[in-house]
Specification:
Largest sheet of chain B: 6 strands, mixed
Radius of gyration of chain A: 21 Å
Strand order of the largest sheet of chain B: 6-7-8-3-9-10
Strand content of chain A: 5-15%
CATH topology of the largest domain in chain B: Rossmann fold
Helix content of chain B: 40-55%
Structural class of chain A: mainly alpha
Oligomer: heterotrimer
Largest sheet of chain A: 2 strands, antiparallel
Number of helices of chain B: 10
């Protein structure tokens, strides 16, 4: 326990340190990409539990990210004024889920509150993952890979073809997401791309990532986590030991989808929009690459590589070879270091496998 | 305790298990023997739920278990080992055994994620019990070694400990002495009797005749999927049909 | 639906269907010798189209196509030698990820060479509006080309596997690898050759289809997933089954145009494929018992 807290604490110190460093050197523009990287890392750590620990591949997680992002964006931007009189809209507004406002041109606007949109989006992603997971997770190996890939393409095509989701342009002018309203002297906590809120948003993103990480770490070290790893080790034996493998695979699939959707929702509000490229196959493959390079079953490794590579990519370091770089990374890791890049050096330093850490506790 | 009646399993035209019926009494060791390809492992897989029998029925503690999934059968109190050791790779010996405690504990996803007191209290108990079991099998010094990197005999031990961790009332052992030398086999024999004395009923499939004759209370002989004899060991040794099968096999082996 | 329209849909279905069948055969060839599903299969088709379009600027059409097929075959061999050959008993997950990585590399390479523009080969005979009357139905001569070339490929392949020593060795390799090694067959070379063969077939299909379907750097993925499902439907490893399943899918897709808006067509056809994958993972012609014995 002590070691675990120590590592977490050093991450926290690092996060604060980076923020202070950027404000001192007035390089605060880095924070924007660091914020985005943190959100993408949420997708990646969720996928790591599915792939690394439970051993189930998914090449469709951009789909869940997009479901979260697109739904939240659409619900908070599409004007419902024409349905004003319908029972559903009335009910929702009496529940406080829909508010009126004005758009840029002063027209009256009737839209979902971000909180409500966020919850709807995440639940939808979870439900879709559940319904999809029941048949999909019966498949193994190549079949599973292809089926999840197919799911990703379907979501991409739907986003690209639906007027409701803005076709090729996606959805823009998504409002900020007020997590906590202003309270007395304390200002509101808003997820948005406003320059003034840059530092605040950096902390929001990293808090979410760290909380997400802690939850997953707890999970991995629990009875359920052990069962998940046993499925990876030998599905037949896990089943013989009484592990309901089908249910556990399904739940972890849903969990990772929910992580992806949460990231999608927040990043969309932060960016103020979302486009179809977020749902593309390449994005899904990129998440898989980040999980692989971080060492699959190594949450810390996945987090570190997820944040750093995404940051570099967002800074445009890879230029027009961005996607190609991720392809190369994917191949190189799988060829030469299937345990992940960190397995080479850092593993001994950071990671004693779970049991030992627990005995110290 | 366990009752098979007219159990049948066909693979296409092949009758791997053909109309087999027998019972296993509580607190006994029963062995299933027979030449290679007699359908022993298929029979096992039918009982454990890995294969769906074509027809017939399997009752465990007066409950029909045919058609149930392996994990449901495990929850009812039937545990097993595998002919080709089937440990969880990437996990230590202790963790392997701890998975065996899975069905005897309840913490779920949320309890685990939020590390609720219920979860870690239970976790402590799981670990305690698992260490105990490793102790019984004299394997506690390997607790933190990756299970699949252990020596063959030790792996069998870990697998046995894992099976015992489920608190089974019936233990299925699939060739527990396969690949072991005589000393290790004798050790396994001692262990199996010890397990029976703990009140656990044992059904084992075995090739090694000496092991079976020494420890079994009753023996079922299978040949080409059919039961040809069922008796106490000394009677089986005298059974002309059984001798014919085994000698027949020897003749073939010599030819 | 008028009978005229019906036949139009039917021919479109057959054309696309045979294309899917060919991609599926590409999957099968590699799967049979190695147990690998090559996720870069769709990229071979794209490469064939793109290379032949480029070569056409300096060579006459038949030579350009031949050149494109040869180059793609070389690339296929190269991929196997560089990325696959020296791995010792890699896990399925690892191989999936490697071939996905390869498909991305090829796609990105294509993007850098040819850009995002949509290209196509000219019609082999006549042009877009040329049509031949066949029993009262007017069809494009290119459709006949596709049907002709693809039928020849399928026929040639089955002859190749049945008659030639090399084909027999490849079959031996797929039936029982260890036994094949014991018989003195160099199984590693067989694997390389299977990559070459499946790359070449993919490329050829890419060439003949290009005038109808057009070619773009990212046209491989959707093809791969459809080809894969067709391969599953036809029973993994079964070439005739693949063609039959391909035709079925092609026609289904073609006729769905009359009901479903075009923009959603891909989404819906992939969704149908997924359903098929869930319901009949062992293929329409395969048995579930046999499928269980295969390793995935």
């Amino acid at each position: 326990m002590a070691r675990k807290s120590l590592v977490l604490l050093s991450l926290l110190v690092l996060v604060i340190g980076v923020q202070l460093a950027t404000s001192m050197t007035s390089t605060q523009y880095y924070l924007t990409q660091l914020t985005m990287s943190a959100y993408y890392a949420i997708v990646v750590i969720g996928l790591s539990v599915l792939m690394g620990y439970a051993g189930q591949i998914s090449i469709g997680h951009a789909g869940f990210f997009a479901i979260g992002g697109y739904l939240s964006a659409a619900l908070t931007t599409h004007n419902l004024i024409q349905f004003q009189e319908s029972g559903v809209v009335k009910l929702l507004s009496s529940l406080g889920m829909i508010v009126t406002g004005q758009d840029l041109y002063g027209e009256e606007l009737l839209v979902f509150v971000p909180w409500a949109a966020c919850i709807v989006a995440i639940i939808t992603a979870g439900v879709i993952a559940f319904v999809l997971g029941i048949p999909v997770l019966k498949l193994k190996g190549h079949y599973l890979a292809m089926a999840t890939l197919g799911f990703g393409i379907i979501i991409y095509r739907i986003a690209l073809a639906s007027e409701y989701f803005g076709e090729a342009d996606g959805i823009s002018e998504v409002p900020g997401f007020t997590i906590f309203p202003a309270l007395g002297d304390i200002g509101p906590v808003v997820v948005s791309g406003d320059f003034s809120g840059r530092v605040q948003n950096y902390y929001i993103a990293w808090c979410m990532l760290i909380i997400g990480l802690i939850l997953l770490q707890n999970l991995i070290n629990s009875r359920v986590g052990r069962a998940l790893r046993s499925i990876h080790g030998s599905e037949e034996a896990a089943e013989a030991m009484g592990v309901n493998t089908a249910r556990y695979k399904l739940y972890v699939f849903v969990l990772s989808a929910v992580y992806a959707a949460i990231a999608g929702v927040f990043l969309t509000h932060y960016n103020g929009g979302i486009g179809p490229s977020e749902a593309s196959v390449m994005k899904s493959v990129r998440y898989v690459a980040l999980v692989a390079v971080g060492g699959m079953a190594n949450l810390w490794g996945v987090l570190i590589m997820g944040v750093s590579l995404t940051f570099l990519s967002l800074r445009g370091v890879f230029g027009s070879y961005d996607d190609a770089i991720f392809g190369v990374i994917l191949i190189m890791i799988m060829l030469f270091a299937p345990e992940g890049i960190l397995s080479i050096k850092l593993k001994g330093l950071f990671f004693r496998k779970n049991i030992r850490a627990k005995q110290e506790a | 305790m366990l009752e098979l009646s007219s159990l049948q399993k066909n693979f296409g035209g092949l009758k791997a298990v053909d109309d087999v019926s027998f019972q296993v009494a509580k607190g006994t060791i029963k062995a299933v023997i027979g030449p290679n390809g007699a359908g022993k492992t298929t029979l096992f897989n039918c009982i454990a739920g890995n294969l769906a029998p074509t027809s017939g029925s399997i009752f465990f503690q007066n409950q029909e278990i045919k058609g149930k999934k392996p994990h449901q059968i495990a929850a009812l109190g039937i545990s097993r080992t595998f002919q080709n050791i089937n440990l969880f790779h990437g996990m230590t010996a202790l963790e392997n055994v701890m998975v065996g405690r899975h069905i005897r504990s309840t913490s779920g996803f949320l309890a685990g994620m939020f590390s609720l007191p219920k979860s870690w209290k239970e976790e402590k108990k799981i670990q305690q019990r698992s260490v105990e079991l490793l102790d019984i099998l004299d394997l506690s010094k390997f607790a933190h070694v990756e299970a699949t990197s252990l020596a063959f005999g030790q792996q069998r031990g870990v697998e046995l400990a894992r099976a015992l961790a489920t608190d089974p009332s019936l233990l299925l052992l699939d060739e527990p002495a396969a690949g072991l030398n005589i000393y290790e086999t004798a050790e396994v024999a001692r262990l199996i009797t010890k397990i029976r004395d703990m009140g656990i009923t044992v059904l084992l499939v075995e090739h090694d005749m000496s092991l079976v004759m020494d420890i079994s209370d009753e023996i079922v002989v299978l040949s080409f999927g059919s039961k040809i004899a069922e008796d106490i060991p000394s009677a089986i040794q005298q059974n002309s049909e059984v001798i014919k099968i085994y000698l027949g096999e020897d003749e073939e082996a010599m030819a | 639906m008028t009978s005229d329209l019906f036949f139009q849909f039917l021919f479109a279905g057959i054309t696309y269907g045979i294309m899917y069948g060919i991609v599926a055969i590409g999957f099968n060839i590699i799967y049979n010798t190695t147990g690998i599903i090559n996720f870069a299969q769709g990229e071979f088709v794209m490469l064939g189209g793109m290379l032949s379009i480029s070569l056409l600027t300096v060579l006459p059409l038949p030579l350009a196509i031949a050149g494109a097929v040869l180059i793609t075959m070389l690339i296929g061999a190269l991929i196997e030698i560089v990325f696959i050959r020296w791995l010792e008993s890699p896990s399925v997950l690892r191989l999936i990820i490697i071939t996905i990585g390869i498909s991305i590399l090829i796609r990105e390479l294509a993007l850098h060479i040819w850009g995002e523009s949509v290209r196509s080969l000219p019609y082999f005979y006549g042009n877009e509006i040329t049509s031949i009357e066949l029993g009262g139905v007017r069809i494009s001569p290119q459709v006949l080309w596709v049907l002709g070339v693809c039928s020849i490929v399928v026929a040639a392949l089955s002859v190749f596997f049945k008659v030639t020593p090399l084909g027999r060795e490849m079959r031996a390799c797929s039936a029982n690898r260890k036994a094949a090694i014991l018989c003195g067959i160099n199984t590693r070379n067989m694997v390389t050759f299977s990559f070459m063969l499946s790359a070449g077939i993919g490329a050829l299909a890419g060439c003949v289809m290009s005038p109808i379907t057009y070619t773009q750097y990212d046209s491989g993925t959707a093809l791969a997933i459809k080809g894969f499902t067709v391969a599953i439907l036809g029973g993994l490893g079964n070439s005739i089954g693949a063609v039959a399943a391909g035709l079925l899918l092609g026609c289904l897709e073609a006729f769905s145009v009359s009901v479903v808006p075009l923009a959603f067509q891909d989404a819906i056809s992939i969704a149908i494929l997924l359903v098929i994958l869930f319901v009949k993972p062992h293929g329409i012609f395969g048995s579930s018992e046999a499928a269980r014995l295969k390793e995935f």
